[in-house]
Amino acid sequence: MQAVILAGGKGTRLAERLQGRPKPLVDVEGVPLLERQIGTLRDHGVDDVVILVNHAADQIAAFCAARTNFGLARLALIDDGAPRGTAGAVLACLDRLAARFLVVYGDTLFNIDIVRFLAVHVEAGADATLFLHPNDHPADSDLVAVQDGRITAFLPKPHPPGALRPNLVNAAFYAIEKRALDPWRDFPTPADFAQDLFPALLERGAFLQGFTSFEYIKDLGTPKRLDTVRAHLRGGVVARASHRVPQACVFVDRDGTLNVLRDYVRRPEDLVLLPGAVEAVRRFNEAEHRVAVVTNQPVIARGECAMEGLHAIHAKLDMVLGEAGAFVDRLYVCPHHPDAGFPGEIGALKVACGCRKPEPGLILQAARDLNADLARSWMIGDSTSDLGAARNAAVRSILVLTGEGGRDGKSRVRPDFTVPDIAAAAAFILDIHPRIEAETAALVDGVRPRDLVCIGGPARAGKSTVAAVLAHALRRAGRDAAVLPLDAWIRPEAERTEGLLGRFDIDAAAAALDPWLKGGATALDLPFYDRRRRVRCPGETIGLRADTVVILEGVPALLRPLPTDRRVLTIHLGTDEAGRRARVIADLMDRGLAERATAAAVYDARQRDEFPLVERAGHGAALRLALDSCFS
Predict the structure, then answer these.
(1) Catalytic residue among 80, 196, 253, 416
(2) Measuring CA to CA, which residue among 630, 625, 631, 628 is closest to residue 573?
(3) Catalytic residue among 255, 369, 416, 505
């Protein structure tokens, strides 16, 4: 495979750092840039490099000779003479190039899976494939429009005020078929690929493919950019931003999670981002979490919005995020809808599919494209369809209480975690969750297969959060674990008797667990308690192996020991009372107690009949935890 490196520029903006050297030999953390570029190319199978030189060509020739041409099968330097621009320089030496070649700009540092990039280019049969990525300043960048992988337009800056443009930037890394350039040998020069030749090719019907990726490529042509690249090398950002390295990903629902939930978003003006959404996405970007929006859009199948309209809606999303320095890496849409009967519907899209949430298709496709490490990834959404998709894709779920807030009633899937909104979700993923993991790491090491772990404590002390963190850590350590919330066995309001144990049907929970408590495996029907209607509903079936670690969590988890010969670990969670009181009252109001005074009265009554029992039981726990510092 051949690569052409455009290395003829003077590097005027970098003069203070070059000390008389040509730009390709600028020092990048102790290694000249050209050496880094050729090393990356060689590591991905490129064995033929053509360097187009001009300014200080003798220094570049001497540098390559001193390194015995880097062990390549072929290395050639071609002086491109008078400045012709990036495209003009390549066209001038076309006879000396291979049938297919890469184009690399001499002022970029990159860590791209070139084998994958070329495979996609060849499979598509494109005339040229351009490496594209979103950035954090699309408003002042040259942008590219893509549909179904094909580039449809080049959108140079400056952009008109209020223009809706997709956030995709040409990163100046190309795979090109020589045959596609043959008719353009006499193209007027100087000519730039992005500004001149590619738009002309597109206008004549050439197939230009857009390859969108999060992988690292940055122009270091100014002192500030050079310092940024050096910092990224030192901090490991360049190494981590490789498609060969599994990525932590955040899969995010759109309507009700990122933007205000409406009947349907049919026009760009209908899209209004929720408070904190932009900041949350930017935090994920800065933390090197790849962000993929995964959204059901039945308005397409129903004929209420064309694909062009949807592209405009998502261009608005790109622009609003970009104005604040944020971006999404990829966006995935399910256009299907299984139910017929809508005026103007599109019959071909009225199908049951594998991409409409709660099916996991969108998440799994995003995971493949982004090389997601699912064990380190998350799904954030406002509906049980989002939770179901997360469950089916084997990623952790966070329910936000915006939009549907989990009240859609489509399924009985429980979230792993619940937070008020996407800003809180970002804080939980990036700040709170790592702290809780660190605080409970020793506990994970002490849990063995077959154990029963009982986590008790007062309401809203963090029991379900700790249980979910513990279960995930155990699974990552190779132990099967299941969380059983005792809230599933809250009695319907009409069946309750006095006191804490009168509200929970502990006997039913014990009966459901009985085969496992006796040492065997079982399939347990876990009920679902509807906290707003205060009724118990059929839930989901949980399979428990004989060696599963069962984590039983709930307010009364330590009050009545369950009969078993298994090893039982008991944990009591305490918390700051003022903070807990505020959380309980907010939860009661969310469940239908409209008046704060009424909710406060319920809290005070629970304190009298519940708190002393729970505290006494907690004194006998093997481990007492207080994790308030993790949440601050």
Answers:
(1) 253
(2) 625
(3) 255
Domains: count for the chain: 3
Q: Are residues 7 and 52 in the same domain?
A: yes
Q: How many CA atoms lie within 13 A of 98 on its CB side?
A: 18
536 bridge partner residues: 529
Tell me whether residue 445 is one of the annotated catalytic residues: no
The DSSP secondary structure of 541-587, one letter per residue, reads EEEE-TTPEEEEESTTTTTS----SS-EEEEEEE--HHHHHHHHHHH
Tell me how far CA of residue 128 lies from CA of 84, 103, 201, 553, in angstroms. Answer: 20, 10, 10, 57
Q: Round to whole Å and give the CA distance between 419 and 503.
A: 25
- Tokens linked to 456: 């008790």
Within this chain, do residues 453 and 526 fall inside the same structural domain, yes or no? Answer: yes
The predicted pLDDT at position 61 comes to 95
- Whether residue 440 is contained in a domain is answered as no
Distance between CA 428 and CA 586 in Å, rounded? 19
What does the pLDDT read at residue 531? Answer: 72
Give the whole-angstrom CA distance, residue 155 versus residue 169: 10
Res. 593: pLDDT tops 70 = no
For residue range 495-535, list pLDDT tens digits in order: 888 888 899 999 999 999 999 999 999 999 999 887 777 77
Q: Are residues 508 and 418 in the same domain?
A: no
Residues 448, 452, 454, 455: is their CA dihedral positive or negative?
positive
- DSSP of 42-104, one letter per residue? HHTT--EEEEEEBTBHHHHHHHHHHTGGGG-SEEEEEE--S--HHHHHHHHTGGGS-SEEEEE
- Residue 374 sits in a domain whose CATH number is 3.40.50.1000
- With respect to residue 437, please indicate whether it lies within any of the assigned structural domains: no
Confidence grade of residue 262 (pLDDT, cut at 50, 70, 90) = confident
In a domain, 270, yes or no: yes
**Sign of the C-alpha dihedral computed for residues 115, 117, 119 and 122 taken in this order:** negative
Instruction: Please say if 58 is a catalytic residue.
Output: no
Residue range of the domain that includes 482: 447-632
Q: Residue 106: is its pLDDT beyond 90?
A: yes
Separation CA 506–CA 487 (nearest Å): 10
Dihedral angle, C-alpha 586, 587, 592, 595, nearest 10 ° = -20
Q: How confident is the model at residue 8 (pLDDT cuts 50, 70, 90)?
A: confident
pLDDT at 586: 81
Helix (H) or strand (E) holding 515: helix 506-517
> 487 and 556, same structural domain?
yes
User: What is the spatial distance between Cα 525 and Cα 437, in angstroms, rounded to a whole number?
Assistant: 29
Q: Tokens 């939930």 sit at which residue? A: 261
Question: The pTM is what?
Answer: 0.93
- Kindly tell me if the per-residue pLDDT of 590 is higher than 80: no
Which of these, 133, 137, 127, 142, lies nearest to 111 by C-alpha position? 133
Under the banding of pLDDT at 50, 70 and 90, the label for residue 608 is confident
DSSP per-residue letters across 250-301: EEE--BTTTB---S---SGGG--BPTTHHHHHHHHHHTT-EEEEEEE-TTTT
